[in-house]
Write a structure and sequence with these properties.
This protein is mainly α and 98 residues long. The protein is 62% helix and 0% strand. It has 6 helices and no strands.
Length: 98
């Protein structure tokens, strides 16, 4: 077996052991997603109108407006996407261009 194959096998064995209760062989990573995201600041930093931002990243224009005006907050998956857009907008564009 190749070195990469051995590494993958070891990782899978660690994951299985962890699921079965053996926490000595690995650790779970807990991701903290902020409750609030400043959509307007992200959009402005990218220099986009509300309509252009919505179209580029697949959001409803009404959602952008509601978020920016404080009537609603983005739900979990949208918050995650917005955080990724904030840090790596080009990567999101490439992924969506598929």
């Amino acid at each position: 077996m190749t070195k990469a194959g051995k590494s993958i096998t070891a990782g899978l064995q660690d994951a299985l052991a962890y699921v079965q209760g053996d926490t000595s062989r690995g650790h779970a990573q807990v991701v903290q997603v902020p409750v609030e995201v400043d959509v307007k600041a992200i959009r402005k930093r990218l220099g986009l109108t509300q309509a252009a931002f919505a179209q580029r990243y697949g959001f409803e224009l009404s959602s952008i407006r509601n978020w920016e005006q404080g009537r609603r907050q983005p739900e979990g998956p949208a918050r995650v996407l917005l955080l990724v857009i904030n840090k790596e907008p080009e990567a999101v564009q490439r992924a969506l261009a598929g």
